[in-house]
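Appendix C: a fully annotated inverse folding record. The material below is reproduced so that readers can follow the format used throughout the book. The structure is listed first as tokens, followed by the designed sequence.
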């Protein structure tokens, strides 16, 4: 299904697919691999590269023929589709390429490596969702990238547990090694602010986004 300049892909309809999350994750990785092959050729030909981001979510949707008789399309609609769209857009905030919610990470199986990036409340939803960056298949992610993911998740755990000063120190170390990483810079800024101004007792480690 084409949606503006994006593509909406779904698994589990019209035929049931018990491994829909795994197949979606695998498809995204294959898309990323193909884009990595194509983009150098685009650049060599003087054409712009094709920067592409992906958002993954699982859940119930309504699937069927949608639209007027003259412009009918087989599509999926509903809250899960909206969530995937919101998640895709957040890649630009965190400097990531593929983000997924927890259900995708859990249902895809143990063959993939992830990084827990943040807990967010997206536009139109009250319940926070956890964002996970897809790094690749287990065994295919570089040791450097795995160490970065582990270090980030440790710092994020400190942040969630209100150990803001310890989180700040850990994130400053990461920022020195990865000065261009937007997710590190963003979490470091939040930790520095909370070191200077302690939050209320009911504070939640949730980023709130009020726009798409």
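Designed amino acids, in order:
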């Amino acid at each position: 299904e084409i949606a503006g300049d994006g593509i909406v892909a779904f698994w589990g309809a019209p035929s049931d697919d018990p491994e829909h999350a795994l197949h979606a994750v695998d498809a995204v990785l294959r898309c990323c691999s193909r884009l990595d092959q194509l983009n150098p050729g685009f650049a060599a030909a003087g054409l712009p590269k094709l920067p592409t981001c992906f958002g993954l979510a699982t859940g119930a949707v309504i699937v069927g023929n949608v639209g007027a008789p003259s412009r009918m399309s087989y599509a999926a609609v509903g809250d899960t589709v909206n969530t995937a769209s919101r998640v895709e857009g957040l890649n630009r905030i965190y400097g990531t390429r593929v983000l997924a919610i927890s259900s995708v990470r859990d249902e895809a199986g143990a063959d993939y490596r992830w990084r827990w990036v943040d807990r967010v409340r997206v536009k139109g939803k009250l319940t926070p969702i956890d964002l996970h960056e897809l790094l690749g298949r287990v065994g295919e992610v570089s040791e450097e990238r795995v160490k970065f993911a582990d270090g980030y998740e440790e710092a994020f755990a400190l942040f969630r547990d209100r150990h803001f000063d310890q989180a700040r120190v850990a994130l400053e170390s990461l920022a020195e090694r990865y000065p261009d990483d937007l997710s590190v810079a963003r979490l470091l800024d939040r930790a520095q602010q909370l070191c200077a101004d302690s939050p209320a007792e009911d504070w939640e480690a949730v980023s709130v986004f009020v726009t798409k």
